[in-house]
Amino acid sequence: MSIITPVKCVIVDNNEIDLYLTEHLVELNKSLHLLASFTDAHAALHFLQAHPEVELLLLDIEMPGLSGLELVQQLACPHPAVVIISTHRDFAVEAFDLHVADYLLKPVAHTRFDEAIARLPARPALASEPAPAPPAPPAELAWNLDRASHDLFVKVNNRLLRLNFDDVLYIEAMSTYSVLVTARQKHIVHYTLKSIVERLPFAHFRRVHRSYVVNTKLIDSIEDNMLTLAGHEVPLAKSYQDELYHSLRSL
Question: Are residues 148 and 243 in the same domain?
């Protein structure tokens, strides 16, 4: 099936060189159509508020006056899909809390940019062909040699972090990333949820939703298709209910 219409996008980046490079990536991707580029986030916000037809926002984070994350927070819902393009990893948790579609690190490789666009939510402009299969993930989970332990080494940024999975409340899928959530912290790994599920050796982690795996030992309550774990709420999809209930001890 042929492409119906290209996805209308806007770029916001106060660094003119980075802005030019992103414009070039957009030009090379035939499923995108650039409506406007901005080095000023306030001007971009006014444009987006006046042009609801914008479908995709390619956005830097650190900008004077109004940051990229603040810009997203000021957009009315539903707002365009957002792909962050940043020099820093530090804002990834905050960005995914705002449900961004992807988080790219500068300098962005052409193939990585195209992967992010192909994985955007389904829309006619991207329906010409199925999204390519995700590349084999890097070895970001390493099993502890002590099988009695519930520790795993998890690659967070560029270091291996020893993490006790008894402390992990749930794991949430975020595009090509996953977020490991504990009561105190969130750890982002560049690993799909499917890949984590296939490698986790612990039986007490159960998939309860297309985007969530939970630690069943830490479930406090289940009510109205919603799980509560240490104050966090996780949806329970109907298709996973029977399997979860069967695995739980109950009267």
Answer: yes
Count of structural domains, the chain:
2
Find the helix packing angle between 110-118 and 16-28, rounded to 10°: 60
How many residues make up the chain in this entry? 251
Residue 16 sits in the same domain as residue 120? yes
Closest of 30, 205, 50, 172 to residue 114, by C-alpha: 30
Is 134 contained in some domain? no
Report the CATH number that the domain containing residue 48 is assigned in CATH. 3.40.50.2300
Separation in Å, CA 236 to CA 147, 222, 242: 30, 9, 11
Q: Is 215 helix (H, G, I), strand (E, B) or coil?
A: strand
Could you tell me if residue 75 is inside a domain? yes
Distance CA 175, CA 187 (A): 15
**What does the alpha-carbon distance between residue 238 and residue 115 come to, in Å, rounded to a whole number?**
31
- Owning domain of residue 79: 7-126
Using a cut of 0.85, tell me whether the model's pTM lies above it: no
Per-residue pLDDT tens for 117-175? 988 876 543 433 444 444 434 434 444 434 445 777 777 666 677 888 889 999 998 87
Q: Running DSSP on this structure, what letter comes out for residue 125?
A: G
For 51-207, where are the alpha helices, taking DSSP H only? 68-74, 92-97, 110-118, 193-199
Q: Is 94 strand, coil or helix?
A: helix
